[in-house]
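Blackboard transcription, Thursday session:
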Amino acid sequence: MTSSSWVATVQADACMSVAENRRRVEAAFDRCGPMLHRYVAVRVGGDTHLADDLLQQLWLQINRHGSGCERIADSELEYWFKAVARNLIRAEWRRRGSRPTTVPIASAELAAELADRFTSERLSPELLESKEVRDQLLLAITGLSNEEQVLIVGYYFCHRSHAALAGELGISKRAVEGRLYRARAALRDCLRELDPDGGLHS
Amino acid sequence: MTRQNDQSNDCIDRNLRMIGQHLTLPEEPNASQRAAWKRRPSRTRSMPLYKGITFMKTHKTLTLGMSVAAVLAFALLPFITIGGGKVEASTILASLRQATCNALDITFSDLGDDGVIANGQIIVVFERNGQGKSPFDAPITGIFVDASVVGELGSKEAAGLDARVQASLMPGDEWIYIQSDRLPDSLAKEEPVLVALFGPMVQNGVLLKCTGMLRGDLFDEGVGKLPLEELPSSPPVKTWISIGAEETTEAAIENLIQGMLRGDLKGADFDNLIGELEQVVREEQVSLNVENRGAGLHVLRLTDFPKEKDASWTKGMIVEVAYQEGKGVPWARVEHVGPYDGTLHIETADVSTDNPKFNHDRFISDGRTQVFDLDRLLNIGATLQSAELEHVGGSKD
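(Written on the board underneath:)
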């Protein structure tokens, strides 16, 4: 192989890996999009238009740092996306000069109490009408991982069947049941350890 | 798995079912929202401008500016992104200006979308061609837009808007003048302080100089070379040029268009090619009839465009193209287009960029107009935001 063809081969390989990495990151972003949107929307007070703007900025950020994320495993990309999303939300709050009043307020104490009651008694509809309780639940649910949210939101909020979720995730119905079990446990843990800053701590 | 774990999990399950009925999560993003997150700056758009736009979007005070951009885009769409017929669109553009004319005069009414309705005029001036020079290589030397923009009453974003926008795009001299008697009500609600601050200024008129920002391939290259697919995506406007023509008939239709634009089609040739076109449009259930108005003037009339859900822009639309034997296409007209039943009329004209309309001095001379160099302002904004994004663009933590 001549030196020029070797250089060409190396360049082609490099281009290929950049393109592949880009596709990988984009696929992960597509997969996590609804989860990230939910995460951001809740933390900017339910303003979905602003959430859209921030998701657009998030995508720009991802592309800007795209070449540096080759070492991040597929399974960890969503945590990186969330980290950037957190920073963008904080920047938005700074821009506004304060945290919007409509943003749910985390209460570690209440959330921990809720986690205990969650597993030991039937919560009353009256309790769920309380804004404080709803805030804890919103922060905890949207703080779950992508797959956990797909399952919890899909099954309990969108009323999708085990079979439909199995089809979406490409797993068996039995596996959906198992993962739902773990997602419920993760939600309980998330409530127990809810960050006082709603997952936006530095 | 212990019995206790099972019990607690069943309990969470029961509680979650109830929570699912009582708690509302943010609305799930739809496909177009998700696609918009990844909308990238086009190749022809400069990064500072893109940053500027992002800056403007996050600072909602420039909603009006975005409306203006939308109006500009809509007004130009029928010319630039006709269905996807890349060659044909540029051919029409280039050939509509005959040797005796060097401009297109476009008037539009009730054109718009998303609650913003515009009425006005656009003049596109081309460089006069030298002898033997292909018309496709002639660059555009200026575009002038004058639009009255109003917000639809029921529109969440635009209700209350009442503005007049004039803009001139010439290489090295690009400006936008905005005068608004009333800004959108939503803006007044969201940004009351800014509206109180800038409202009176806009009422007196604001001139934004944006030299270098809007220039691109439009001025640098001939119309035939415009990267049409790079321009903003159009609403689902289908025209007779792009209606699912088979490859065999495509050539015939291309011949028809070229011949009409040159003005050298007549007699049996014209009838034969019209026959081909009729066949194509019939397949798409669009009606075509050609009216002979005498003295070599024919008017092609297309009606009954598809009425599917996704064709709201073309529902009820009527397209008329006049063809004058020996001269070409003197005018074209589109009626009942878009959600506000708009009309667009295009005809050739003889206008130069020396026309006073292209000169912004008339706004400055009254002494009330505020003048801003937008290019400089956006660059400052972009720099600030860039620094901010640099700061937030964190690593995995």
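Lecturer's comment: Chain A is about 75% helix and 0% strand.
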